[in-house]
Amino acid sequence: SQQGEEDPQALSIQEGENATMNCSYKTSINNLQWYRQNSGRGLVHLILIRSNEREKHSGRLRVTLDTSKKSSSLLITASRAADTASYFCATDGTGTASKLTFGTGTRLQVTL
Amino acid sequence: NAGVTQTPKFQVLKTGQSMTLQCAQDMNHEYMSWYRQDPGMGLRLIHYSVGAGITDQGEVPNGYNVSRSTTEDFPLRLLSAAPSQTSVYFCASSYDRGLGQPQHFGDGTRLSIL
Question: How do residues B92-110 score in pLDDT, each as one tens digit?
């Protein structure tokens, strides 16, 4: 079964706007990661946040983690057309050693 | 470095045929895994390996076999292809046996079973 569920399933914004997508998961985790997938390509790692961290930044990306609510959010600031892609969260549960579980993804469309 | 290389990129099979999807990485990563991606379902783990000679099942292992004779290679075998196995298959690797490291993905194999 899917551990993570992204929300919204699809998001359409204009270039320059911020994009926020959310991930909810079901069980306790060690780490949570975010990935990007361009059409027809493999997934590319964006950022990893550990269970004892609450916020992390990387360039235009900001990730938050709330373990009490079992949720995470990915914020992309000042979006660009090149950010158009699907975004996935992935978790490794404390009881599922060596197994990474992906959510269903958010499709982001950034228009000019 | 080539990273994670998957071959073939596309394949069409008939029901009942067998085939092997190849995955190779040149980063000396211990951890390798196979996922399938179906519309609306994200990625689901098929099999994984934490090192040469060690493999284990993921979420959807039925109909697939794996082996890990070398650190570099992690082939996925379809024993008797079924239409339900039509999917996009991704191989991934990472340095750590645990999952506190980024996964590196190949570009996928698009498989159709007729």
Answer: 999 877 678 899 999 999 9
